[in-house]
Design brief:
The chain is mostly beta strands. It folds into two domains: about 40 residues, no CATH class; about 150 residues, Deoxyuridine 5'-Triphosphate Nucleotidohydrolase, Chain A. The strands form three sheets. Strands 1, 3, 4, 5, 8, 10, 11, 12, 14 and 16 form a ten-stranded antiparallel β-sheet that branches. A three-stranded antiparallel β-sheet has the order 2-9-13, with no helix packed on it. Strand 6 and strand 7 form a beta hairpin. The radius of gyration is 20 Å and the shape is globular. The chain starts with 6 loop residues before the first helix and ends in a 20-residue tail after the last strand.
Amino acid sequence: MIEGLKFWKWRKKPPRPAVWTGKQMARYFSHLRGVSNTFTIISGHTKRRGLSVYDVIDAEQVQPNGIDLRVDRIFTQKIGPTLAAKKEHTDPGMLLEIQPEDLAGLPPGNQSWFLDQIYYVVEWKETITIPKNAIGLLSPRSTLLRLGGTIVGAVWDRGYEGKGRSGLILGTPMLIQRGARLAQMIFIDAQEDDYLYEGQYQFEQMEKG
């Protein structure tokens, strides 16, 4: 658990008023004061024991507060999934991979996808390892946002290792080149603990030796 979240346990939150005033709003949210100051974002240039991002080939991927991730594969949902209350009853459905093509106007070998305005699942080229004392958060790059798309990310728990997948939503048809940087992974300090991620996505898409 991140150090700052302890505030939620021992700082009593005042009752929520029926009609908000400036003073009441300030009082209602006062229990959050100090929480943000306990969060530390790890610089993309910082070497942290146990934290690694493999397959980073371009210096431009390393940002002041994180690492840019490149798209490697893109999928659509072929058979609808089922999200159940218990994970053993959840059915992920079936993904259909969209193959990139060499498109006119681009140099040979620069494979790309021409995508419609729908939801996709993207797989990242980089392999991420999260240590015991950090978590990862994924955000869309501002360039993608300005072009009419966004990435839907999640919390990457400490102990996770693998090539993750995320959601891609496009508000306009878009040409995306394989290897394009779509998202930025930031790493945040967390209280070190041996309770690590052991979910079904552990070591996903990694070559088995």
